[in-house]
Task: structure prediction
Amino acid sequence: MLEGKAVVRETDMPENIQNHVMELAHQALDAHEVFDCQSIAHYIKQKLDEAYGPAWNSVVGKDFGSCITHLSGSFIFFRVEMMEFLIFKDGKDFSQSREEAIGVFRNA
Result:
């Protein structure tokens, strides 16, 4: 369990979703051992998929690199004490047709 406040390093998420993601991170940290990064990440992904639809990704750890693409408005990178969280949604929402997905970006 980590008690520290979340510190956002970078995000393009709306504030209400940021707050939800950080609350989920604290819940995951309370429910799992701090060193069990896979279970923490899985918990966050599962809860976000339930709340906002599929295709969320969650990376949790103390030392990792990344190079990602994400849907606009779905990215946050933050830390709680020594643990870092990279949360984002990618474009693989298979419940949408290809035409619907393309339409979303044309109208953006």
Notes: The first helix runs from residue 15 to 31. The helical segments are 15-31, 37-52, 98-106.
